[in-house]
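Tokens for chain A. Residues wanted.
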């Protein structure tokens, strides 16, 4: 049933919607109707000027998924060897380093099994030409909130997804593979599956006061 929701409060939904990788159920089929329901929720997100320039490419064909996974693996290999990879980021806090190691292992797993994930959802936006120069927040602000709404709707229905953009290194090749027009640019790839269990918890984050600035950058929040 597409309308069977987990018994989560709003705050629980917002704080326990995780990037799910190792706990994606690669064996359980995901009905297209469930994906459609989650996308219907996503389409309620705001867009600049109510333009609604988004497009959603849902990929279930095994051959297409394998091809996308091949490009993803190439991009991930370079990422894994870079200073941006979670395993390369070290902190004074041992607990945070342990978290980084778990995230790195999880990311490795997704790269190895992406082709096996039942559904790949690519969020894209019609830019009508080239990407604008300078800060592009106004552009992507008309796509990314909807993609997050999709993840929330999926979580509420027992599915998980992992937010990733590593495929964008091969955006042109994937666009050709999926017949995406040149003026439509991809913004996020969401591998979607039912999750093994639904008992996700809030993640450990840095204290708010380490990132909160009141009225100026140099202000102290407390």
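Reply:
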């Amino acid at each position: 049933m597409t309308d069977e929701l987990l018994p989560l409060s709003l705050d629980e939904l917002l704080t326990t919607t995780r990037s799910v990788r190792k706990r994606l159920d690669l064996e359980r089929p995901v009905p297209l109707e469930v994906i459609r329901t989650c996308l219907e929720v996503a389409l309620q997100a705001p867009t600049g000027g109510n333009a609604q320039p988004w497009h959603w490419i849902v990929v279930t064909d095994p051959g297409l998924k394998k091809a996308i996974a091949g490009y993803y693996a190439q991009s991930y290999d370079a990422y894994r060897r870079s200073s941006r990879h979670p395993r390369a980021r070290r902190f004074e806090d041992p607990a945070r380093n342990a978290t980084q190691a778990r995230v790195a292992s999880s990311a490795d797993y997704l790269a190895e099994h992406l082709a096996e994930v039942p559904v790949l959802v690519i969020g894209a936006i019609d830019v009508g030409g080239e990407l604008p120069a300078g800060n592009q927040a106004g552009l992507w602000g008309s796509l990314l909130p909807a993609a997050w709404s999709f993840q929330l709707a999926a979580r509420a229905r027992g599915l998980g997804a992992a937010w990733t953009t590593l495929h964008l290194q091969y955006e042109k090749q994937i666009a050709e593979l999926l017949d995406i027009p040149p003026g439509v640019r991809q913004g996020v790839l969401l591998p979607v599956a039912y999750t093994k269990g639904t008992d996700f918890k809030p993640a450990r984050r840095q204290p708010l006061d380490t990132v909160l600035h009141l009225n100026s950058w140099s202000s102290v929040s407390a």
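The first strand starts at residue 54 and ends at 59. The helical segments are 10-16, 32-42, 62-80, 94-113, 137-140, 144-156, 171-178.
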